[in-house]
Structure formats: C-alpha cells, structure tokens
Amino acid sequence: xxxxxxxxxxxxxxxxxxxxxxxxxxxxxxxxxxxxxxxxxxxxxxxxxxxxxxxxxxxxxxxxxxxxxxxxxxxxxxxxxxxxxxxxxxxxxxxxxxxxxxxxxxxxxxxxxxxxxxxxxxxxxxxxxxxxxxxxxxxxxxxxxxxxxxxxxxxxxxxxxxxxxxxxxxxxxxxxxxxxxxxxxxxxxxxxxxxxxxxxxxxxxxxxxxxxxxxxxxxxxxxxxxxxxxxxxxxxxxxxxxxxxxxxxxxxxxxxxxxxxxxxxxxxxxxxxxxxxxxxxxxxxxxxxxxxxxxxxxxxxxxxxxxxxxxxxxxxxxxxxxxxxxxx
Length: 328
Ligand SMILES: [Zn+2]
Ligand SMILES: [Zn+2]
Description:
Elements: E1 2-6, E2 13-17, E3 27-37, H1 39-46, E4 62-69, E5 80-83, E6 86-88, H2 94-97, E7 108-109, E8 121-125, E9 130-131, H3 138-141, H4 147-157, E10 163-167, H5 171-182, E11 186-191, H6 196-204, E12 209-212, E13 221-226, H7 233-240, E14 241-249, E15 270-273, H8 279-288, E16 298-302, H9 306-315, E17 321-325
Parallel strand pairs: 10-11, 10-13, 11-12, 13-14, 14-15, 16-17
Antiparallel strand pairs: 1-2, 3-4, 3-8, 3-17, 4-5, 5-9, 6-7
Bound molecules: zinc ion (2 copies).
C-alpha cells in the first residue's frame, strides 16, 4: 500500500510503501477512496498534540470500501464505510459508561494514535465505522466525517440559539451553516479581516451577515461557535453574545486566550469546548446530512499531493474542504 507518512514533527509527509496486513478479530481492511484534510491534521503534523509517535499516517475523514473483515466484524466485503476521528474507546471508564465516550480516558483516534487515511488502505475497528448515504460520492462524503461530525456536536452544544455566530469559515463552518439554516437559525459568519472570498462563500451558504472577526454583528448573538484556532476570538465572541448565551470552542487546539474582563462572561454566559465525537453523534449526523441536504464543497488532490493540500489549508486558501482522492 502507498501512504503519506509523518516521520517527524513539522513534516513534510513522505511517500512510502507499506506492507498490507490482514484484519484481525473485529477489524476491517479498507480500501481508501477519499480522505479529507482537517485542521486537526495540521496540529498532528506540527506536533501541537501530545503523545504522537512517529512514523504516523494522518487522516481521519475517510471514505472507503471494505476489502476484508476479521472474525466478528459486522461489515461485509464490498460495503462502503466512513471512518472518523474516534477510533477506539475502552467501554469501561466513567465517561464511557455515562455515554461520553468522546472523553474516554483511554480513547484512541484515527490518524493520531491509529494510522489513518492518507493512504491507499487502512485497518479500522468495525465498531467505529459508519454507513454513508448513497446520495454522496466518496469525495463529497469525506468532509462529513469530521468537519461535519465535530461541527454538528458543536452546533448541538450551542443550544437553541436562533442567531448563531460562526468564527472561522472553513470546512466545518460550511457544513454547520447549512444545518443551522435548515433548523431555521440565522447564521452570522466571521472571517479573517478582509477575506472577502470567505465572506461571499458564507453568504452563498445562506449566512444573514458576514464580516471580519472583530466586527460587531448587526444583532446580538444567542450563541457562537469558534472553529478558528485563535484564542483572541474567545473574548470577541463573548462580547458578541447576549446574556445567557454560549460560546463553543470547536477545535482541538487553540492559541492562548488573552485575559478579558469578567463582565463579558458575566450575565450567565457560558464558555465551553467540544472534544471529539461519540458514535451516537456520527449516527445522528450521518442520518441528518442527506435530509438537509448538506452539500459539501471540496477541492480534490491526489494522495501524492497531500503536502500541497495541507499547505492550502494552512494558508486559508480553500473554500470548503481539501480531499485526497486515491487512485487504485
Ligand atoms: Zn473509556
Ligand atoms: Zn478533524
């Protein structure tokens, strides 16, 4: 199998050939068709996350076809599956038993502790693979697996907010905006200063207003989701949210949050993060997406162009999601 491998923190990814192995009990051997590139992949590559052991194959928004199933695996060869970030949980810790397996103390994640989808093949635990609706082709389904799932969990955590702010209008935001509009909410999109292209993109997706992150929106927000990994956005979002509102940090990593006056949190505003996903999130969102219907915007790259795709994401030079499409 071919893979783009992270051999040291900071990258670049290197094209390498690896031996294929057969799936063990409960595992699937999957032929990767498409794998989207997520901001978390940048944090993995840069070494921003703890406990990465190299070499590692990143990638956790995977759509593929089951080639072989180990004993006890409930998928058959030929099935199309999606493989998300959550790759394994213990099922025994307090968090798992309370339905919060996203917080499992021993959780393992695809493309982080488990080799991921920047490759022609991967091995995955069958319990963490999901069916993909037929209305999506492989490349357009891939961003649903993280941008969609984590975005959806962030949206749920934002509560009943009618006026929803979204800071950082990339892959997750472009999906969340569609779901939010479907639910009858108004979307206010905040982008980098002067990023007209992202602001136009947000408006095309139904945003009621789009501006720069420091701008004051025309109305007070009921909640805001921050997808950009920029700590300065936290006090900005708190200032834009009305009393009782919630600010959700949807990313896995963020630069330090500057000190801010207590009065912008007071008034029972809530500041919280969202971590990972549960399998229930995946089932709910993947059932909802075709009903909206969520249309993903993708820019395709070959597996060998993974470094280019990563660079475009880093530069903010994408509308929607970068997706690696594998040639077999
Ligand atoms: Zn656990
Ligand atoms: Zn991700």
